[in-house]
Amino acid sequence: MVRECFFTTQCKTASWLCASTAVLNLDDKSLLSVFKGTLQSAKCQFPLLVVTGTALGAYQYTKSKELFWAVGAGLLFLNIPFTLTCIGGINKELMATSTESAGAETRKKIVKWGNLHSVRTVLSAASVAAFVYAFVKQ
User: Fold this and answer.
1) Nearest CA to 82 among 60, 48, 113, 125?
2) Quick check: 28 pLDDT over 60?
3) What's the rounded Cα separation, in Å, for the pair 20 and 30?
4) Element (H, E) at 97
């Protein structure tokens, strides 16, 4: 459960980064540079947190048969296909964009990424809520 809370916090932080007025007031080149740095540090944490949290939730479900452990694990797992299908392409495009060539289109992609990333934040928060409910219910 601690991992899921950490992951949810990371999701909210990344969403904030892409929607923050201060960050969005940066010029296009600086905005892309901040985005790339954040993505680099998060891309190692994301799969580890999702896979571990999903596995632990599934394990708790098999142990206790409490449905909300499975619900939490499923919600957390949904981050993977969502990322691969909806966010992965944007990640690749933005990472392939040189900082020097960043422009208005780059900014639009980062804002779109932030909006899509909000879905992951909701999935993660719902997962934490399901895990907390399952834990309290036991």
Assistant:
1) 113
2) yes
3) 14
4) none
Quickly state the pLDDT bin for 92 (edges 50, 70, 90).
very high
> 25-43 burial, b for 16+ CB within 10 Å, e for fewer?
eeebeebbebbbebbeeee
How confident is the model at residue 15, as a pLDDT? 54
Has residue 48 got a pLDDT over 80? yes
Residue type, 10: Q
For the four alpha carbons of 123, 51, 18 and 110, in that order, the dihedral sign comes to: negative
Output the CA torsion 130→119→24→92 (10° steps): 120
Tracing tokens 């919600």 back to the chain, one arrives at 75
Tokens representing 125 are 């928060």
Q: How far apart are CA 113 and CA 35, in angstroms?
A: 10
As a residue count, the chain comes to 138
Measure the CA–CA gap between 55 and 76, rounded to whole angstroms: 10
Answer yes or no: is pLDDT of 128 > 60: yes
Whether 95 and 36 have beta carbons less than 8 Å apart is answered as yes
